[in-house]
Specification:
single chain; 199 residues; alpha/beta; 4-stranded parallel β-sheet; 50% helix; 10% strand; elongated
Length: 199
């Protein structure tokens, strides 16, 4: 007998699942069949979702989600996941986008819906990439305009650097003693040694 499962996700423990759970219950999903995660949607290795997919969902079951991005944030990954769920014989209902729902549809309609989903996700993915690139470019331009130097800040040279390094090179003190005298960490010390040629 087929079952209807609901999946709800928020990105962090501080956020609330109430709105999604309420919508899933109103749709007709039983409380005990609502699986939740409080975790980022960057990939699908979330405990709730893994249990749902690997142990609960069977062919003929229906998976209900409030919005498409509750499945995840990476559109390419959602595309693959959608395909895998359909291969398992699981129907998907997206409450906020009924056109994407495969439940109670013919095989031909399911194929058409899958194509729409893939095109939509490819479009959204590309749009997201452009948006991120644009934001980064705008941020860099704004920072440069304010005179902010990009990249890692250069380590300033201690006033006594050359005299202490000379002592070390002449064998008057160890590298550790030199680092302590200059108040520098090992990596910073050797980085500066490479950059500054002390004769």
């Amino acid at each position: 007998m087929s079952r209807v499962y609901g999946y709800a996700r928020v990105s962090s423990t501080e956020q609330h699942l109430d709105r999604q759970i309420k919508a899933l219950t109103a749709y007709g999903v039983e409380d005990r069949h609502i699986i939740t995660d409080k975790q980022s949607g960057k990939d699908f290795s979330r405990p709730g979702y893994k249990t749902l997919k690997e142990q609960l969902l069977r062919s003929g079951d229906v998976l209900v989600i409030k919005e498409l991005d509750r499945l995840g944030r990476d559109y390419e990954a959602i595309k693959n996941e959608w395909h895998e769920l359909r291969q398992m014989g699981v129907d998907i209902v997206v409450m906020d986008m009924p056109i994407l729902s495969t439940a109670d549809k013919s095989d031909l309609e399911k194929v058409l819906i899958a194509n729409i989903v893939f095109e939509l996700l490819a479009y959204l993915s590309e749009k997201e990439r452009i948006k991120i690139k644009t934001r980064q470019a705008e941020g860099i331009a704004a920072a440069k305009q304010k005179g902010v130097k990009m990249g890692r800040p250069k380590t300033s040279l201690p006033a006594n650097f050359e005299s202490e390094v000379r002592k070390w090179k002449e064998g008057k003190q160890t590298a550790t003693e030199t680092m302590q005298a200059l108040n520098l960490k090992r990596t910073t010390f050797y980085k500066l040694i490479k950059e500054v040629n002390v004769l």
